[in-house]
Task: inverse folding
């Protein structure tokens, strides 16, 4: 790699001397520190997850799909409401080729190469190919397709803004990327800077992921993704004290014994599944449906007996913030729930509206967080 980089730089210098330097040649440092070289900004890209279109949406592109040569097929299955919003604005999304389903082992390298992309964008940790997918990475590199890693999941606060800058550099959209990255950093600082100056008592919080996906409670997150956002917002994460790994089942008896101060469930439901125990949040979901779905989900044996539920300190958050450039909203919403007096002047909904405005003409408006009382998350 060092020899390749040296030869590349030599060719650029020689090109400048001869007046034939490649136009807009790029040398990108991805989120893992790898050096990636391209002759020019990418016009055709592969997305290691379909939901990475959100990282293109925040760049304020009028048609973010024109650059997508192919993607994994998990978007419409895991976030049907968001996918439907894209379908309304861009029906051609259904025609974008896929080169895998929802896991790295489903990827067809032959299909990916046949799409002739200029580059691929993968998450460091993702449903699809990731930083450990050496066979896929090596095969794409051998075909002349560089792989660029970003991260909105493993270390969301540390890596989101820089990941957007990296994508902006890859696409030749540095100015738009910097605008969002700077906005994200400022909105995160509104929480972290204030907490650093006050150090309030941290409430104990139980986060149950994928509410309604399984009968038993409680699958939770101990570190990374939403757990990092909770900690940064001033919480004591119950799962981090119980689970040996990043995710896993927290025994309901242990939860009842700990009596967390606050319960948060992540929403993977839709208005159609609201009566089936899944919390409904996301594009097109009303505040009334969101609140009623949360109340239904809390009417479960064991969970209903938690002090946090009895006291009304129970909330729902859109699950897909766990791997999204929109995570500053989840951070601010957590801060309001954990420390309402300290963050009385914070307006997470205004923050979310400003971010979603960049997605027009895709209309992603809806309730993305909820409390038991409709309209008062």
Result:
């Amino acid at each position: 790699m060092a020899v390749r980089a040296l030869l590349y730089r030599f060719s650029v210098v020689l090109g400048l001397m001869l007046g034939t330097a490649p136009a807009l040649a790029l040398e990108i440092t991805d989120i893992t520190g790898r050096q990636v070289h391209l002759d020019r900004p990418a016009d055709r890209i592969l997305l290691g997850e379909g939901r990475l279109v959100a990282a293109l949406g925040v760049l304020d592109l009028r048609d973010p799909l024109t650059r997508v040569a192919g993607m994994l097929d998990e978007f419409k299955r895991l976030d049907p409401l968001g996918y439907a919003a894209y379908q309304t604005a861009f029906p051609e999304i259904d025609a974008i080729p896929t080169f895998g389903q929802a896991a790295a082992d489903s990827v067809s390298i032959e299909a990916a190469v046949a799409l002739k992309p200029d580059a691929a964008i993968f998450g460091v940790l993702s449903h699809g190919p990731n930083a450990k997918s050496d066979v896929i990475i090596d095969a794409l590199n051998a075909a002349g397709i560089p792989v660029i890693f970003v991260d909105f999941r493993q270390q969301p606060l540390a890596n989101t803004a820089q990941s957007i800058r990296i994508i902006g550099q890859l696409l030749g959209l540095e100015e738009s990327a910097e605008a969002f990255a700077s906005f994200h950093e400022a909105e995160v600082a509104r929480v972290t800077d204030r907490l650093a100056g006050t150090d309030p008592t941290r409430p104990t919080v139980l986060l149950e992921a994928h509410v309604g996906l399984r009968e038993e409670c409680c699958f939770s997150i101990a570190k990374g993704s939403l757990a990092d956002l909770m900690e940064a917002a001033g919480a004591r994460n119950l799962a981090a004290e119980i689970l040996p790994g990043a995710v896993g089942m927290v025994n309901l008896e242990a939860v009842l014994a700990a009596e967390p101060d606050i319960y948060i469930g992540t929403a993977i439901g839709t208005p159609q599944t609201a009566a089936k125990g899944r919390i409904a949040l996301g594009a097109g979901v009303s505040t009334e449906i969101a609140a009623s779905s949360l109340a239904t989900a809390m009417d479960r044996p064991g969970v209903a007996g938690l002090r946090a539920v009895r006291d009304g300190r129970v909330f729902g958050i859109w699950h897909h913030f766990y791997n999204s450039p929109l995570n500053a909203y989840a951070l601010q919403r957590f801060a309001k729930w954990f420390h309402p007096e300290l963050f009385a002047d914070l307006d997470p909904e205004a923050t979310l509206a400003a971010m979603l405005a960049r997605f027009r003409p895709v209309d992603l408006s809806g309730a993305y967080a909820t409390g038991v009382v409709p309209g008062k998350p």
About this structure: The chain has two domains: 21-183, 201-371.
